[in-house]
Amino acid sequence: MPDLATFVSPRAFIESPETLIDGASACLDRVTDRFNACDAEGVDAELHFPHVMWSGASRLEWPNAGRHPTDFFDTLKRSGWHHTRYEDKQAALVGRDKVHFVVTYSRRRADNEILSMHTNLWMIVRIDDRWGICLRSY
């Protein structure tokens, strides 16, 4: 484990910020594709564990994959949900192996009527050459 001084010190970029953003953004796109396919295992494949979610001051941590409730997508469909679409993805912080995005997405009915809009902070990091979401703040 790095000491604090090493941990907070900036490291030089190996790739351009645009290349890093593209790699991390592709991870977000895969998550949404798998989410819209109601594929919880596929979503998990795009996360890093432990995976942390914040909502207000409440924290939820998934130590490993397989934590979506078995009826998660059925419950979502009963609400009228058909698909989720990104409205905007803005890279707020780019580092050597991380991109933090402010993500705005909508949940929509089959006819594209918007059920809800959400703006969140999602942190995507590259570990062992694989981009994955490690933290989502709702």
Tell me briefly what this model is:
It is built from four helices and six strands; from the N terminus they run αααββαββββ. With 138 residues, the chain is an alpha+beta fold.
Question: How does this structure look, described?
Answer:
- The chain has 4 helices and 6 strands.
- The chain has 138 residues and is α+β, with helices and mostly antiparallel strands.
- It has a single domain, classed as Nuclear Transport Factor 2, Chain: A (Roll), CATH 3.10.450.50.
- The protein has a 6-stranded mixed sheet, covered by helices on one side.
- β5 and β6 (130-137) form a beta hairpin.
- The radius of gyration is 16 Å and the shape is globular.
- It starts with a helix and ends with a strand.
- The model has no long low-confidence stretch (mean pLDDT 95).
Question: Which features characterize this protein?
Answer:
single chain, globular, 4 helices, alpha+beta, Nuclear Transport Factor 2, Chain: A, six-stranded mixed sheet, 6 strands, 138 residues
Q: Assign a percent range to the helix content.
A: 25-40%
The major pleated sheet works out as: 6 strands, mixed
- Strand element count: 6
| The CATH topology | Nuclear Transport Factor 2, Chain: A
- Widest beta sheet: strand line-up: 2-1-6-5-4-3
User: Would you tell me the overall average pLDDT?
Assistant: 95
Q: What is the global morphology?
A: globular
